Amino acid sequence: MTIQRTSYDAIIIGAGPAGATAALLLAKAGWSVAVIERVRYPRRKVCGEFLSATNMPQLRELGILRAVLDLAGPEVRTVGVFAGDCILTADMPRAADGAEGWGRALGREHLDTLLLDRARDAGAAVWQPWTVVNVAKDTEGFRCTVSARDGCHTLRSRVMIAAHGSWDTGSLPSQLPRAVSRPGDLFGFKAHFRGSRLPSGLMPLVCFPGGYGGMVETDGGRVSLSFCVRRDRLEHIRRNGSSLGAGAAVLAHIETSCRGVRQALDGAALDGTWLSAGPIRPGLRARSHDGIFLIGNAAGEAHPVVAEGISMAMQSAWLLSERLLTRQGDILRGRGTESLAEDYARIWRDSFSVRLHAAAVIAHLAMRPSAVALVLPMLRMCPSILTWGAARSGKVMQVVAGPCRETLA
């Protein structure tokens, strides 16, 4: 890229749904913004691809709702469970917001590109593919060293936002340190299939020994299968299916134990390659660190079992951006950062803690056949419990209800 400037009001590390949303909102409000992204787009990514109905008001305000609806899969009106020989379905709870009351699924190669292009059009400078190798705080804000084949540059900003996710460890102050391997570590896999028999508009939770997953029809008539599996179970599966790759070996394990998946993929063809990522360690993390604000998975991550990752990422970016804009007079002069961080941490916790706890409970039940066996009779008697559970997991919780406030403090 042509280097036009090296000083910005805000630098955002990562251009996924959280980073691109924050960049777009701040740039629209007149901030000078740089987004640093190390991977070229479009890119595929391990992700359930579900966009909750609660995202639709955001997408409308961001100016990409029409494009998303044109590309995305059908409305997801039914939730279900595939576990053993059991196939259960129930109504998906409907969000209260207007005509777009149902969620859709859209591949990250499309969603991320739409958001980042929109941020660029709003005036954000996109450094891609560049990698942030160092962040240091000083009296004037932050110094950020970025690296690419073209060399290194030092950028400066008053505000630093980390939207780099949580899966990659590193030396940046906002990144998680490398953790000791544990048997219960979760690894994520994703693949697309064509010719699937999954009923249109159904998004089932897939329960299997040692893991959980989900399926949904996404863009272009493809069906996305994504799942998490424990490290110890993955090692056992690979030892017993060494002729297959890891993703295909786990899929064979799932099909053996889950009639719903077996039927849905009967005759279907793999579209592209398997993707993998991990270890995935869901949980609540700090929402700021030494003056750096964290959004998306960097701030906190629900178990993917509830398919709320994209929603939480975009909504957390919105919550932070709204607070930065309402206090920008002080923030851009280097004042009030600590009180803003406390306010952001509080509203993040109030908005997402229920989702985190609900996801953890569902995930730990779904991975244990004995627990699933105890729950299934109750679900058969009262399938509406699935509807209630989907609501509790965030499908109707409207975190962002209107335009991002741009009132100057």
Offer a quick outline of the entry.
This protein has about 400 residues and is α/β, with parallel strands linked by helices. The protein is built from twelve helices and 19 strands. The two termini are about 35 Å apart.
Present the secondary structure layout.
Layout: E1 7-13, H1 17-28, E2 33-36, E3 50-51, H2 56-62, H3 65-71, E4 78-83, E5 86-91, E6 104-105, H4 108-121, E7 125-127, E8 131-138, E9 141-148, E10 151-162, E11 186-194, E12 202-208, E13 211-217, E14 223-230, H5 231-240, H6 246-257, H7 259-264, E15 269-280, E16 283-284, E17 288-289, E18 292-294, E19 300-301, H8 309-326, H9 328-331, H10 337-366, H11 369-381, H12 384-395
Parallel strand pairs: 1-2, 1-10, 2-7, 4-12, 10-18
Antiparallel strand pairs: 3-6, 4-5, 8-9, 9-10, 11-14, 11-15, 12-13, 13-14, 16-19, 17-18
Helix pairs in contact: 1-4, 1-8, 8-10, 10-12
